[in-house]
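Lecture notes, continued. The same structure-token format from the folding unit now serves as the input rather than the output. Read the line below as a description of shape only.
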């Protein structure tokens, strides 16, 4: 799986994410002068192994220039942040199904089950408003329902390998 970030300063953003990304997915950073004006359609969820580890990951991200973000979450156990160039990401509370550094790549979708099915990977779990696939190796690929309008730009994009 490959994630591409458009950035005003690709080396700086690459340095930030190198602290968190591990080697589970390929991250690519490309220059763009288009300003970020809306919530990204794709974001990363970082895993944690304990409440203390979650707090440590959040503290490291904030020290490296991340900021807390409000994307409408209410009373959730994860922490929503923005990287130094405004891209949203979450630091999840401990969940055993997420053993890697990157727990999931999350994609907003009007029809999560159809989007997950279109990857060619088997849908591992689904429910009201979400569907998940688990490409091996790597993090979960999760589609969550949104009624948000299509974004003007997709500053973060995901490309996954065909399972065939």
């Amino acid at each position: 799986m490959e994630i591409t970030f458009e950035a005003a300063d690709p080396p700086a953003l690459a340095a930030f994410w190198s602290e968190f990304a591990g080697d589970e997915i390929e991250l690519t950073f490309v220059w763009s002068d288009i300003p970020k004006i809306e919530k990204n359609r794709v974001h990363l969820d970082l895993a944690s192994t304990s409440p203390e580890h979650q707090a440590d990951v959040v503290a490291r991200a904030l020290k490296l220039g991340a900021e807390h973000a409000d994307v409408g979450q209410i009373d959730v156990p994860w922490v929503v942040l923005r990287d130094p160039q405004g891209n949203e990401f979450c630091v999840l509370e401990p969940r055993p199904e997420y053993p890697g550094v990157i727990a999931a790549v999350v994609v907003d979708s009007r029809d999560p089950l159809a989007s997950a099915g279109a990857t060619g990977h088997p849908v591992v779990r689904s429910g009201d408003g979400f569907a998940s696939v688990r490409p091996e190796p790597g993090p979960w690929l999760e589609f969550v329902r949104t009624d948000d309008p299509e974004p003007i730009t997709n500053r973060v994009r995901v490309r996954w390998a065909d399972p065939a």
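Point for the exam: The mean pLDDT is 91.
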